[in-house]
Write a structure and sequence with these properties.
This protein is mainly beta. The chain has two domains: about 15-50; about 55-455, Maltoporin, Chain A (Beta Barrel). Helices cover about 10% and strands about 55% of the residues. The protein has two helices and 19 strands. It has helices at about 10-50, 175, and strands at about 65-80, 85-100, 105-120, 125-140, 140-150, 190-205, 210-220, 235-250, 255-270, 280-290, 295-310, 320-330, 335-345, 355-365, 370-385, 395-410, 410-425, 435-450, 455. The protein has an 18-stranded antiparallel β-barrel. The protein is globular and about 60 Å long. The chain starts with 8 loop residues before the first helix and ends with a strand.
């Protein structure tokens, strides 16, 4: 006998509703978990991003690492090197720096160089800078060896390379090319310069040390007019020897006092330029005081008499003031330096020596990890070194540059920069290839700079 089953429509609907409700609750729980899973994944990605920072361009490495970068850029310039009209150039440049973590034999090297292919009416040129430093700690003696060489188309202007528009503004490494913006600007004058130095320091007590240094520098101008469409001025070749002896005493962790005596001699070869230029020597006695205001802010002041003596018949030693004042701030995401300098110098290959008063300011800052902004500016007033029968002159030089960089991906960034150079002269002078007027350079490009490579033991 077969059994028959009857289905209650109402109970079936209730069971179906309960099943649908259960499934809906499960879906709701999954949807509620999705934001939590997303937050968890983001939180797990933060340490990785911190370990491998986002690049906004080339930066100097830390101890035990090597850092490099390659940049491709385009520059637009007006009155650059004295050329009229608007010119453009395509630039390829690279930067490399390495610092060891050795405690007793620290070594560092910084390189910057590239080539600019310019439009008609302006010469194409190569440029490079290389600096090497080696420290030796032998018991209580500390030795320092340094050498820097650069090949530039004109007076060093802004950035690590000294060439505006190539994307290295805000990278501070003065020993490479001395790009302080405090030199007398020239036109297109290809030059090669080299500076070698030796320093020795020995502690006398736990707080007092004696130090000495010697430096030899040379600049040679290359007349390469046969290889380019724009003639290159030979400039004034120069040789410079200098030495100093000093004593420093650390009063406490914040205060340091020192005294220093320095001697330098500059000689010039004007035969290639058709100008006979006498050399001159300088003797400087100065006192320096340094104060570390906070862990990030430091102040330094140095001043004293400076005697300049030109190697011409009838000239006597002329005394002037030497001064070097500076304030520097260094934070995690920003840094700034303000400085004033008054001293004699070789004249940047334009004149046979000058006394300059210069004030400079530079700053840089990282915003939101992907933006980098840098600003540098300098104003210099240069006049002749006093000598019998010398022609008076006065140059006013202004150099300012700004750069904004933005990370595109982790190792690739884009930048835009603007550099202004202005120089005027008063009086007369036996100057060689002196730049006069206002120059503007705008640059934009891409920089590939991967994470630092760790070398040696950490």
């Amino acid at each position: 006998m077969m059994k028959t089953f009857q289905i209650d429509p109402q109970s079936a609907c209730r069971r179906a509703a309960r099943q649908i409700l259960a499934v809906a609750c499960q879906i709701k729980e999954v949807l509620l978990l999705l934001p939590l899973l997303a937050i968890s994944s983001v939180a797990q990605a933060v340490p990785a991003a911190t370990a491998s920072p986002i690049s906004t361009g080339f930066t100097l490495p830390t101890s035990g690492t090597l850092q490099y970068a390659v940049s491709a850029s385009e520059s637009l310039s007006s009155n650059y090197f004295g050329n009229t009209g608007v010119n453009s150039s395509t630039n390829i440049s690279g930067d490399l720096a390495f610092i060891t973590n050795s405690q007793f034999y620290p070594f560092s090297t910084v390189f910057s160089g590239g080539r600019a292919w310019s439009s008609s009416g302006q010469a194409s040129y190569d440029f490079f800078n290389l600096a090497l430093t080696q420290g030796i700690h032998a018991k209580r003696w500390v030795f320092g060896l340094s050498d820097s060489v650069n090949y530039l188309p004109g007076t060093a202007s802004t950035g690590l390379s000294g060439v505006p528009g190539v994307g290295d503004l805000g990278v501070n490494s003065t020993p490479v090319s001395g790009n302080t913006g405090q030199g007398v600007l020239s036109g297109y004058s290809t030059r090669i310069s080299n500076s070698s130095g030796l320093s020795i320091e020995r502690p006398i007590t736990g707080k007092t040390a004696i130090n000495a240094s010697g430096t030899y520098s040379m600049t040679r101008f290359l007349n390469n007019s046969s290889n380019t469409t724009t003639p290159s001025s030979p400039g004034l070749d120069s040789d410079s020897e200098s030495g100093s002896l000093g004593l420093s005493h650390r009063i406490d962790a914040r205060n340091t006092f020192s005294g220093n005596f320095a001697y330098s001699h500059n000689s010039f070869t004007g035969a290639s330029a058709g100008i006979a230029t006498p050399g001159f020597s300088s003797e400087t006695a100065s006192l320096q005081y340094s104060y570390q205001w906070t862990r990030k802010l430091g102040l330094s002041a140095s001043a004293g008499p400076q005697w300049n003596n030109t190697n011409t018949p009838g000239s006597t030693s002329a005394m002037s003031l030497f001064a070097n004042l500076s304030a520097s701030y260094s934070g995690k995401f920003s840094q700034a330096t303000l400085a004033f300098t008054r001293s004699s110098n070789s004249g940047s290959g334009v004149v046979g020596g000058a006394t300059s008063n210069s004030v400079s300011f530079s700053t840089s800052r990282i915003f939101d990890r992907v933006w980098f902004c840098a600003l540098t500016s300098a104003y210099t007033q240069s006049s002749q070194v006093p000598s019998a029968g010398s022609l008076s002159f006065s140059f006013h030089t202004t150099v300012a540059g700004v750069q904004v960089s933005r990370a595109i991906v982790r190792n690739l960034s884009a930048y835009a920069s603007y550099t202004l150079q202005n120089q005027s002269n008063q009086g007369t002078a036996a100057a060689v290839d002196l730049f006069s007027g206002l120059s503007n350079v705008a640059g934009f490009g891409l920089t590939y700079s991967p994470a630092a490579i760790h070398l040696g033991h950490s």
